[in-house]
Amino acid sequence: MKLSRRLVPDVTTLQAFECAARHGSFTQAAAELNLTQSAVSRQIKDLETQLGVLLFERVRQRVILSDAGQKLLPEVRRLLNQTEELMVRAMASARAETSLSIASLPTFGSRWLVPRLPDFLRRHPGTVLNIASRSAPFDFEEQNFDLAIHYGQPVWARAACSYLCSEVIVPVASPALGAARPIETPEDIGGSPLLHLATRPKLWGQWFEANGVDSDGAYRGNRFDQFSMVIEAAAAGLGFALLPRYLIEQELAAGTLRIVLDRPMQTENSYYLVVPEGKLENPISRAFQEWISEQVG
Predict the structure, then answer these.
(1) Does an H or E element contain 231, and which?
(2) pLDDT for 41-94, tens place per residue?
(3) Cβ atoms of 89 and 131 closer than 8 Å
(4) I need a surface site. Which of 175, 178, 182, 228 has the fewest CB within 10 A?
(5) Which pLDDT score, from 0 to 100, does residue 95 have?
(6) What percent helix, strand, coil does the chain show, rounded to 5?
(7) Are 124 and 284 a contacting pair, CB within 8 Å?
(8) DSSP secondary structure letters along 128-187
(9) Sign, CA torsion 242/246/247/250
(10) Which range among 86-95, 110-119, 215-224 has the greatest average pLDDT?
């Protein structure tokens, strides 16, 4: 059965709509796109006719998005960004022997994965990597990645999860804070300033309970939405932090962070390598899986 594409708008029409919305002017949009004002106006009119809604309202010398236009604009921008990313990846891949697109957790990617990638590229010369940050599971059919690194449980729609490693967190602080507040027992941390990862607000409470300490004060303190921010805040002396050891290898080696108490705790979730069902036999993807398994071994 042949699929109809009559509802698929031309990319240049979407560009005209986005540009006109950004400038609030068909004339300025035309100048940016190197078109005539009438050409932009015609493209917008064609899109309005196709959708059956009015996208702009004319107010004095400007055009302003209608309610329908405001709802459409974020989706158009998302589609244009995806189209641009697709072309850039395709151009990069065309000049490479092989390519690999990886979605990684932000701090894991920047602090653990990227410093180790030179070894992978030495083993697989001619490979072009595309590394992007993703904090939560996504649809592989909508986002074209060859694999993803996931923290949580081994559950991902239309994909296979393979175990990478568990996560062990340790209490750390800057040398200055550690000297100002000497820590000999878990109770000593209880009254100290604490730093929290916003997406895991119970970490300190779980650590205190695991060490037999009252956790009433475990939720006080500053919160940050990325481990990278917690690491920087701890290094700056803002408080004590519970951090995965593998994320602070550099800080521990340099002495900008110190483990204040030898009481590690394994978290309830683990790290997994996720591969979409349609790419399980991709040779370069399988090579990456073997390589990263060596790195965490």
Answers:
(1) helix 227-235
(2) 999 999 999 889 999 998 877 889 999 999 999 999 988 888 887 777 666 555
(3) no
(4) 182
(5) 53
(6) 45, 25, 30
(7) yes
(8) EEEEEE-SS---TTTS--SEEEEEESS--TTEEEEEEEEEEEEEEE-HHHHHHS--SSHH
(9) positive
(10) 110-119
Q: What is the DSSP letter of 3?
A: P
The pTM for the full model equals: 0.69
Residue 193 exposure: Cα atoms within 13 Å on the Cβ side:
15
Give the number of other Cβ atoms within 10 Å of residue 108's Cβ.
22
In DSSP terms, 147 is beta-bridged to 102
Q: Which two tokens stand for residue 96?
A: 């490479």
| Backbone phi, psi, residue 197, to 5° | -90, 120
Radius of gyration of the chain measured on its C-alpha atoms = 25
**Residue 200 DSSP label:** -
- Residue 246 tokens, joined: 């593998």
Nearest alpha carbon to residue 231 among 110, 129, 128, 123: 110
Percent of the chain at pLDDT exceeding 70: 94
Token pair in block for residue 147: 């694999």
